[in-house]
Amino acid sequence: xxxxxxxxxxxxxxxxxxxxxxxxxxxxxxxxxxxxxxxxxxxxxxxxxxxxxxxxxxxxxxxxxxxxxxxxxxxxxxxxxxxxxxxxxxxxxxxxxxxxxxxxxxxxxxxxxxxxxxxxxxxxxxxxxxxxxxxxxxxxxxxxxxxxxxxxxxxxxxxxxxxxxxxxxxxxxxxxxxxxxxxxxxxxxxxxxxxxxxx
Length: 199
Known about the structure:
The chain has a 9-stranded antiparallel beta sheet with strand order 1-2-3-4-5-6-7-8-9, with no helix packed on it. The protein has 2 domains: about 1-30; about 45-185, Lipopolysaccharide (LPS) transport protein A like domain (lipopolysaccharide transport protein A fold, Sandwich). A hairpin with a 4-residue loop joins strand 6 (about 130-140) and strand 7 (about 145-160). The chain has one helix at about 5-30; strands at about 45-55, 60-75, 80-90, 95-105, 110-125, 130-140, 145-160, 160-170, 175-185. It has about 200 residues and is mainly beta. The longest helix has 27 residues, at about 5-30. The chain is rod-shaped.
C-alpha cells in the first residue's frame, strides 16, 4: 500500500490540475471577448483614380458600366462614391441609357445609383430620331430595373417638346414617364414637309 501511495497522490494531483485548467479556460472564454466585432465607421478603406466597373449578364455581355475620375469605397454600407460619374445601362431589350453627374453613390450591391449635382439622363434616340433626356439636381437610377426617379424639380426634353415638373418617375421598359406635381409642357411644332410642285 505504501508503494502505491505516491502514485495515487500523483494521479489525484494530475486530475485536479486537469479540472482546474478546464475550469480556467471555460471561465476565460465566457468572460473575455477574444475576437470582438470590428468597429464599423464611415471611413473609406479603398481609393482609385480613373475608376471603371462593369457588370455583365449570363452571356458575358456588359449591361451596366460605372466610371468616374475618382472612387472612394466605404465598408460600413458597402457604398462607392465617384466624382464626375458616367453610367451606361444597356439592358438588351431596351434603348441604351447613359447618365452623368458631378457625383454618384452606388450602394445596395449595385442595385441603386444616386446621381447628385447636375444629374442628366440620356436615352438613345427613338425610331424618329427624337432625343430624350431628364435633368435634375438629384436622380436615383435603378440599373437592374432600368428605371429612374427624382423628388426634385426636373426638366424632360422629348424630341421638340419640353416638360417641367417636380418629382418624376421614368420606366425605360415601357417608356412611361410620370410627373408627380407642378407639371408644365412646352410643345414646339415640327415643321411640315416641304411642298413639292409638279410642272
